[in-house]
Amino acid sequence: MSVKATIEIVLHIDSLRAIDILSQGLYIIQFQIYSLSNKEKILAFPYNIIPSTRPTEHKVFNGRIIQNIYRSSALFIKYFDEAVELNEICNFHTEIEALPHSNNSDLFCICELLYAPLFLNRSEEIMRAIQENTDFFQVKGRAEMTIFSPLNGVNAFCPILLRDENFFEVHCCFYVMVKEFKYRSSNIEDEISGLIINAKKNNRKNINCEVVGEIIFPGREEVLIQDFLDVYEKYVAKVQTGYENLKQLCLKCTSTLPPQHDLIISMPDFSSRLAKYHKIQQLKPIASPTLPKIEATDIIFSELFDISETFNKFLPTLLQLLQSAGRYFFLHLLKDFNDIINDIWAKNAFHTFRYTDCYSDSYNSDHQSRHKSLSSTLKGFYEKSLSTYPGIIQTNYFPSLEEFPLLFIDSLTKSKERTETKSDEGWIKSIEKVNKGGHIVFLVHGFRGSAMDMRKLRNQLSIINKNLTVVCAYSLESKTDGDIRKMGRRLAKEVTLYVREHYMNNSLQKISFIGYSLGGIIIRAALPLLEDLYEKLGFLITLSSPHLGTLLSSSYLVDAGIWVLSKFKKTLSLIQLSMKDDNDLLNTFMYGLSKSPGLEYFQNIAFVSSLQDKYVPFESTRVEIGPKASKKSKNEPLGEMAFNILKKMQCVNLLRIDANFKFKGASLDRAIGRAAHIGMIDDPILIDMILNTCKLFFE
């Protein structure tokens, strides 16, 4: 025998954006919600779809329910960055375990992106065949979400990022509330008659308090007040609080609208009962009296039935409000979500800040030992002070809170007016029609990479600022084994041609660069050839780029690999990075590059590094010289290179960001530093945190 809570879930799909698509055609967002009982999946039942009343050119046919799956309207998507306002609502209901001694059962949601090619002939017959043939659509993306503690009530915004073959951003809000309680045998299909009956006189549900009391307070005829209060808090107080939170949300989101929803105000106020309950807790005597089990059970479930009846009356009003004012609810919950995420990121980022007249005074540093010590200390401290996630989160995008990377941010500025104020702008922005401005960002891949390597970074950057034009450089594909000078010329030519073709009449406002590994060095090699664009340069971000070469590499395995490639494959670019292209370090390519012009015209610069990345020397990626290297005379040219690079920089802000991954377990990739090196462009949360740290660059 068990107690089950019937849960009502209202899913509101506000909008979506096709950030990156491989093929134009029909796209559908598909949802399935379920719970787990003894590892068995219990599917929720979608039963009501409320389509949008607003016309949209993208909609081909309306959404539908197929067994336990809700499918949104089919949308015809043709281009990158298309934004669609859906405003569709679907109701689900399900049951979860609600015994006092059991933990709150979470709910789980699977969201899939479906795709089907759309024929030129769009006759009604063909459209009907596509709509009815479920096998016609292919799954092109999948997201997994967890709805935490639904018994407490959940009103939360959840961005869904479908990032497999395509990259779609879907904005949804979930409203989750306990609808009623039921009492069943171990077999969910065999409901025990007599426990719940309809009383014809007052149309209320009565329960057999003796039988149900034995479930809640087993083996006792008298119940201690403390035990009663514990169960009351688990069942009644949390459900009442969930209802009150939803009611207050409705009042806040409709406060500026005409007073046409009087039903909200007229709904019962359970906050007074909660206040009374908390007062009872404070005034309870030391020697706790007892209550008869039947009386305690009756008190608890009579209040639960009051809440259930109230919510059933309130549900139509909620649906009506979401139809007419859903955007207000969405914006309110979006802000709550961003506040929570910003708090999590803030607890994983550690800042130092100072003003300087010249950046060249920062090339001598011992950040390596400092960050190594801090990271080991902070990991233990952080796990004791974890933040909490929002009420619902995409679990195949966000890691557990213990796995979030740490960022150590050393910030220097030449602006005396700058303060360490943090931007209030959130990570996720409301989806609106995209109007690309005059700011281009070129992404440059690394050694033996391709433009596709930077696709994930491009998409994440489009979330941070949708008005940027982000271009993944392609002219270097399969050409990174040769001379870096030639790579710089190829990149400069690609940039010049793109600007000439897309920005006529001097409409270009800014041009910025993000380079990964060797890509950061190639960008610097291209700058002397982009003199006509110097006044347009915005920001430069390099990810694990060895600006001082790889002479100080600390990994024997990596050194051996570079030696093999240099010796037998004649890989000139690696020879140049290791500064072995000339017997005199002062005549090497990397030393000469340190004197090349271009960096001084950027407004903001960020050097991103990781101590766990053994592919490139830590100080080299930060343009610093550590204490060990500075003591050796043979490394004096490295100090000169760092000085040459930094002394000419006139940017307002210089950030050095050290990313510390929280890897679990051991692997060869982690041991040799490859995991951290690849993580710079492969870990979506790290990318988001780095871009969020640099978000002032994009303004």
CATH superfamily of the largest domain: C2 domain
The helix fraction, in percent, is 25-40%
| Rg over alpha carbons | 30 Å
Shape: globular
CATH class of the largest domain: Mainly Beta
- The CATH architecture of the largest domain comes to Sandwich
The structure class reads alpha+beta
Mean pLDDT: 84
Percent range for β-strand residues: 25-35%
Number of domains: 2
CATH topology of the largest domain: Immunoglobulin-like
Number of strands: 26
| Stretches with pLDDT under 50, minimum 5 residues | 187-205, 382-386
How far the N terminus sits from the C terminus, by CA atoms, comes to 60 Å
Largest sheet report: 9 strands, antiparallel
Describe the structure.
It comes from Stentor coeruleus. Residues 436-621 form the DUF676 domain. This is DUF676 domain-containing protein. With 699 residues, the chain is an alpha+beta fold. It has 2 domains: 2-335, C2 domain (Immunoglobulin-like); 440-698, Rossmann fold (3-Layer(aba) Sandwich), CATH 3.40.50.1820. 35% of the residues lie in helices and 27% in strands. The chain contains 19 helices and 26 strands. The strands form 5 sheets. Strands 2, 3, 5, 6, 7, 8, 10, 11 and 19 form a 9-stranded antiparallel beta sheet that branches. Helix 8 links the parallel strand 21 and strand 22.
SSE order and pairing:
Blueprint: E1 2-20, E2 25-37, E3 40-43, E4 45-50, E5 59-61, E6 64-66, E7 69-71, E8 74-77, E9 82-97, E10 107-116, H1 124-132, E11 138-147, E12 154-162, E13 167-184, E14 196-198, E15 205-207, H2 209-216, E16 222-224, H3 225-253, H4 262-266, H5 271-283, E17 290-292, H6 293-347, E18 349-355, H7 367-383, E19 392-394, E20 406-413, E21 439-444, H8 455-464, E22 469-472, H9 484-502, E23 510-516, H10 518-526, E24 537-543, H11 556-568, H12 572-577, H13 589-593, E25 604-609, H14 618-622, H15 627-630, H16 636-647, E26 653-660, H17 668-671, H18 674-682, H19 684-693
Parallel strand pairs: 18-20, 21-22, 21-23, 23-24, 24-25, 25-26
Antiparallel strand pairs: 1-9, 1-13, 2-3, 2-7, 2-8, 2-10, 4-9, 5-8, 6-7, 10-11, 11-19, 12-13, 14-15, 16-17, 20-26
